[in-house]
Design goal:
By secondary structure, the chain is of the alpha+beta class. It has 2 helices and 2 strands. The chain has a single domain (3-95), classed as Double Stranded RNA Binding Domain.
């Protein structure tokens, strides 16, 4: 059952429906987003641009981080699979045909 959770992003309060087991994750995500938006707002204070621009830049930065992380996980997974395959081959060679 969903229940409303209050989050604060750039000094504005939002009520978000959330399952109780996801509350902690939602609060962490809201804190992360608030930090990103504040960083971008502060960095572009003298360049102008409204909240829409800052929100799009934050979304792009977060999407970039996510895609980099996914690529890193895929690379790590591939590397682990290769290492496991080499280890299996060594074990197969070490055991010989009589124990396989």
């Amino acid at each position: 059952m969903s229940e409303p959770v209050s989050v604060r992003i750039l000094d504005r309060e939002y009520l978000i429906a959330c399952a109780p087991e996801e509350r902690s994750s939602l609060l962490n995500a809201a804190l992360y987003l608030d930090r990103k938006l504040r960083e971008l707002r502060d960095a572009s204070a003298n360049r102008g641009g409204g909240l829409d621009r800052i929100a799009v830049l934050a979304a792009l930065n977060i999407a970039h981080e996510l895609l980099d992380l996914k690529a890193s996980v895929a690379s790590d997974s591939s590397s682990l699979s290769q290492q496991l395959e080499r280890l299996r081959s060594k074990l197969d060679a070490g055991l010989g045909p009589s124990l396989q």
